[in-house]
Backbone:
């Protein structure tokens, strides 16, 4: 006999736990650690993590935090997926990007991708990239009735589309078998170039292509709502979503004004979003995007069947590094996993060397195999909406959707995306967001493995052919690592010119147990700016002076415990000064008065970029003005604890 569920109450003999009890326990732990929260609620807030867009990740989520019912997969509002079966039948579409301007090399790469698991092709055409007229050569040997083709030709999308239609005709591909996207995105092009003069004319061309696709090519979509220009300019997730919504609505207005029905117009749009290594925000972003677009479709009177958003995920170029690029494999793996869990229909994994130029065959293979492993070995696509039911993800999805909707409405009030771009509203808001994030990056509150944390000054640089220059003149393109990589470039220039990197001496006072933590911290900090470090352990000031003189360095940093600083810092600093030190730093939180002879403190949470820049200036490293000969206090922000 089967016992009904109510006959097996879980933990029935234990009293029910409440949030207030947990908060009280947290409050007690924080008080023991020295913090003094006012109450349990304040203790919980102290453990929360600030996210962009005013959101916060809490330390605990319960059923009380769950938002409204997100519905079922395949049904409005599509939070849980655009299809009832999710990606569990064949997985998502593995879409590889190709940007080599040489049609022969592109063709070789295209055939290799399709032979080894690729499902569709994303071709960058026009400008300095692959010539539009070479599309046929690049697609030699490709079965166009089996492989989807996504074009990305900027302002040349009408010519690129004409070439593709010509290929379909020459190769006798039936209109019903053609699949892909023609890549028309006039507003995205305006965002990238800042040129609004051609937007109206290009939008007219796009609506004509949409009408042709809707009439005779059911598997083709004419327009892409590309949110990457906003993401790559430093936008937050809500800003990226809000800008894409405004662009999608503008395209809907144009398509319906040209004669298409709402359902047909919706069928002509594909949305392209970035996926980064913040896996939960990425999952929430793709889920929130479908919810938001379903609300737009509902307001426009669309049928439920036409309201699901078609999504193309691209691993973030902002998170990619040129230094220690091998770590990019980990970043793109997490981003790809998040996009798949979030329900993206197609995923592009950028090769790990994408920040260096044109990727080689090995990098393309790793990018392709990343998806193959997640699909075929991890079986990630065999679960419909894996994140569904997670109180954290559901709450984050809801909060992100509300933040994005508010930004979308602000763009609409400004006159739509075109007017908001022309007025500078979008650019100014994104610039402010990136400035805030840049401050966190500079202070290493958002660490970059291999660049701002655990740098390897002895790494062998990878050399790649330069990639074609993309459109410019509009929103900027940024990367998280660029400030630190610029410092490393200065160090490389010194190495090439003199045979040696700028150097700094670490005076590790006391035993390993006393100084190791701060010695390791200091070495990691200075090497992030390309400054090589040598260390000497001991207690005798004379020995430190002798080791400093032998090192060839002109700047030193004391590393030890607070107790030993009180006993020996002044004597060691004086000995280093006598040995020729132009600047003496101290690794540790700044006190009210620095020890005599110490110019500045360096510590976790300080502005590392400012510290490293000032040191490279002092050391006369190329790329900066010459520093004064006389030792003076380092002129950097007070936030890093400068002694004046």
Residues:
């Amino acid at each position: 006999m089967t016992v009904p569920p109510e006959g097996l109450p879980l933990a029935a003999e234990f009293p029910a736990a409440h949030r207030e009890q947990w908060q009280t326990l947290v409050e007690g732990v924080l008080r023991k650690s020295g913090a003094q929260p006012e109450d349990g609620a304040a203790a919980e807030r102290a453990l929360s993590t600030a996210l962009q867009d005013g959101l916060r990740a809490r330390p605990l989520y319960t059923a009380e935090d769950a938002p409204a019912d997100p519905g079922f997969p395949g049904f409005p509002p599509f939070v849980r997926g655009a299809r009832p079966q999710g990606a569990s039948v064949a997985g998502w579409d593995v879409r590889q990007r190709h940007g080599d301007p040489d049609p022969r090399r592109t063709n070789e790469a295209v055939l290799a991708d399709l032979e080894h698991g690729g499902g569709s092709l994303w071709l960058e055409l026009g400008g300095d990239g692959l010539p539009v007229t070479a599309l046929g050569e690049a697609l030699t040997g490709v079965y166009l009735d089996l492989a989807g083709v996504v074009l990305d030709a900027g302002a040349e999308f009408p010519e690129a589309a004409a070439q593709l239609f010509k290929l379909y005709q020459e190769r006798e591909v039936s209109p019903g078998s053609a699949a892909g996207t023609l890549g028309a995105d006039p507003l995205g092009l305006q965002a990238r170039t800042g040129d609004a003069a051609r937007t109206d004319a290009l939008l007219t061309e796009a609506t004509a292509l949409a009408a042709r696709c809707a009439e005779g090519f059911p598997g083709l979509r004419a327009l892409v709502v590309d949110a990457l220009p906003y993401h790559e300019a430093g936008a937050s997730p809500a800003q990226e979503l809000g800008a894409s919504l405004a662009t999608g609505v503008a395209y809907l207005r144009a398509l319906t004004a040209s004669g298409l029905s709402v359902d047909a117009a919706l069928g002509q749009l594909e949305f392209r979003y970035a996926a980064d290594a913040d896996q939960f925000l990425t999952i929430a972003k793709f889920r929130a995007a479908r919810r938001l677009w379903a609300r737009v479709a509902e307001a426009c009177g669309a049928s439920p069947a036409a309201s699901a958003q078609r999504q193309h995920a691209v691993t973030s170029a902002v998170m990619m590094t040129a230094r220690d690029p091998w770590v990019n494999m980990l970043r793109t793996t997490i981003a790809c996993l998040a996009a798949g869990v979030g329900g993206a229909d197609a995923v592009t994994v950028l090769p790990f060397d994408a920040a260096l130029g044109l990727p080689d065959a090995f990098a393309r293979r790793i990018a392709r195999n990343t998806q193959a492993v997640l699909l075929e070995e991890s079986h990630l696509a065999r679960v419909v909406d894996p994140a569904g039911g997670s109180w954290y993800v559901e709450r984050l999805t809801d909060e992100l959707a509300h933040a994005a909707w508010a930004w979308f409405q602000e763009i609409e009030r400004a006159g739509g995306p075109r007017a908001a771009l022309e007025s500078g509203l979008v650019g100014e808001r994104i610039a402010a967001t990136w400035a805030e994030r840049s401050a966190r990056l500079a202070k290493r509150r958002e660490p970059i493995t291999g660049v701002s944390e655990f740098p390897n000054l002895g790494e062998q640089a990878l050399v790649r052919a330069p990639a074609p220059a993309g459109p410019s003149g509009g929103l900027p393109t940024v990367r998280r690592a660029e400030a630190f990589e610029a410092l490393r470039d200065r160090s490389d220039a010194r190495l090439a010119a003199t045979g040696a990197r700028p150097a700094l001496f670490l005076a590790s006072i006391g035993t390993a147990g006393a100084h190791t933590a701060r010695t390791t911290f200091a070495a990691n900090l200075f090497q992030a700016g390309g400054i090589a470090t040598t260390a000497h352990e001991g207690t005798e000031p004379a020995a430190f002076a002798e080791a400093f003189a032998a090192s060839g360095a002109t700047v030193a940093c004391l590393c030890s415990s607070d107790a030993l600083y009180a006993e020996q810092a002044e004597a060691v600093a004086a000995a280093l000064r006598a040995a020729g030190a132009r600047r003496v730093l101290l690794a540790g939180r700044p006190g009210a008065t620095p020890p005599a002879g110490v110019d500045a403190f360096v510590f976790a949470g300080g502005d590392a970029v400012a510290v490293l820049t000032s040191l490279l200036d002092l050391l006369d490293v190329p790329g900066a003005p010459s520093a004064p000969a006389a030792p003076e206090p380092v002129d950097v922000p007070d936030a890093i604890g400068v002694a004046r």
Q: What stands out?
A: Residues 624-644 have pLDDT under 50 and may be disordered.
